[in-house]
Design a protein that fits this description.
Distance between the termini: 61 Å
Helix content: 40-55%
Number of helices: 4
Shape: flat
Number of strands: 0
Order of helices and strands: HHHH
Strand content: under 5%
């Protein structure tokens, strides 16, 4: 039963954070996080297609002569 007061406090804090913007010093945050502000250039693009092997098997079962399921296949049989 004692959770009501704690929940009210959390709601109050969440509402304050949502509707009131704090005075954030972004330069201090940037220094604290140790970033220089430049984009990360370590990502290397490759032209390798990682799905080449998968594509070889993707059409398996497409050329079969299986009939399409019809509505009467799903309905119970009439007696």
């Amino acid at each position: 039963m004692g959770r009501g007061r704690a929940k009210a406090k959390q709601t109050k804090v969440a509402r304050r954070l949502k509707y009131h913007s704090p005075n954030t010093d972004f330069s201090a945050l940037q220094q604290e996080l140790g970033t220089d502000g430049a984009a990360d250039d370590e990502y290397e693009e490759t032209d390798d297609d990682e799905f080449v092997e998968v594509d070889a098997y993707a059409d398996v079962g497409q050329d079969t002569d299986e009939r399409d399921p019809r509505e009467e296949d799903w309905l119970p049989r009439k007696r």
